[in-house]
Specification:
With 155 residues, this protein is an alpha+beta fold. It has one helix spanning 3-52; strands at 56-63, 71-77, 83-84, 91-93, 96-97, 104-107, 118-119, 124-129, 136-142, 148-154. The strands form 3 sheets. It has a 4-stranded antiparallel beta sheet, with no helix packed on it. The radius of gyration is 29 Å and the shape is rod-shaped.
């Protein structure tokens, strides 16, 4: 009987066991991290899909001619999902946070007041700010769904 052939088979068998043992140990140690990272990627993709379903567009804006001028803007939601203006730093006008409660929102077509700060799909809303800065400035609107919309205004 040839002992050399048997020792090669045993050697291959032992190497296979060692490789499988190392792979099992690596998977045991790395599986939680891989799971966290893949869930992070899945959540990022879901958030991106939500943001893509919100498409707010600034249609028109002007400064009112009252003694204390106000800024009035018209926004249309082209998206398929309603957008809710965030309560925490949801509106930034000329570098200053505008509390959501100080602006008035109404449906541009019906004139009905909007108190829940939601812009429904295919809806145009009129938003009136309590004051209007002069010159060129940015208007930033953040939504609770994760959208960030930035427009440069000149008045």
């Amino acid at each position: 009987m040839n002992r050399r052939g048997v020792s090669e088979v045993v050697g291959v068998f032992l190497m296979t066991l060692i490789v499988m043992g190392i792979a099992a140990a690596w998977l045991t140690l790395e599986a939680p991290r891989i799971s966290r990272e893949s869930m992070g990627i899945v959540e990022a993709l879901r958030a991106a899909a939500r943001r893509q379903r919100q498409l707010l567009s600034l249609l028109y804006y002007y400064k009112t001619s009252e003694s204390a001028p106000k800024l009035r803007i018209y926004i249309y939601n082209y998206g398929f999902e309603e957008s809710t203006i965030s309560g925490d730093k949801g509106i930034i006008l000329a570098g200053s946070v505008v509390p959501r409660e100080t602006v008035t929102m109404r449906d541009a077509e019906s004139g009905a007041s909007i108190t829940d700060y939601k812009i429904k799909p295919k809806q145009t809303v009129e938003i009136t700010f309590p004051s209007c800065p002069s010159g060129t400035f940015d208007l930033i609107i953040r939504t609770e769904e994760g959208g960030i919309f930035i427009w440069e205004l000149k008045v």
